[in-house]
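WP5 quarterly update. Target: DUF4918 family protein. Source organism: Oxalobacter vibrioformis. Length: 237 aa.
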Amino acid sequence: MAKKTLAERIIAFNRALHFDGELPEGIRIMNPFAENVSALKASSAFYRKYYDDMFPRHMIIGINPGRFGAGLTGVPFTDPKRLVERCGITDYAGPVTHEPSSVFVYEMIRQYGGEDAFYRDFYITSICPLGFTRKGAAGREVNFNYYDSKVLYEAVRDFMIDSLRRQLDFGFSTDVGFCLGTGKNVDYLSRLNEKCGFFKQIIPLEHPRYIMQYKAKAIQAYVDKYLSLFSRVRHNR
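Structure tokens (predicted):
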């Protein structure tokens, strides 16, 4: 029997994602693959387009899905605009939102050589593959990170460890893992890495949201930094 491609393994992982633990009061889990038929369909088309093989890639690990990016498309750091216009995925049928982090990531991808080249070398995921929200001002739902509450982190820690292990078992490279976030995200990932031995080395990068919000005038400098670090593990295929 032929081995499943990386695409089919990722899709099966996404389809089966489920968390049934107890969350802190006021925190809701966000599972785009269970809540949004379009997200599973569109993300499956994305992975079959770029990961329909068994080549090893390096992981780039974010925090957790946000409402206007992966929370809608099922693809980390890929908002609906980028999914359709840059990746050519027309299976998406939800609202067309704009996520600043996605703007930065896809400018970096463009300068890397385009989507085909980038996704042939890298796989973007999150330390927690499901997102969280809480009620903000005027009762509006806002993003919430796994590390924003100690109680939440402790509730989802085992789920995050298991999710990362399962993805690494697909055949990703473990010599280096890239972490998006030079503060709490890399601190928490490093602690888990010391315990679980996911990667030999973790390299932190400034989070795209931080760059777009606070360092917009220096975007090119951060793109250059990303590209310089990624070039160290670039495959020649």
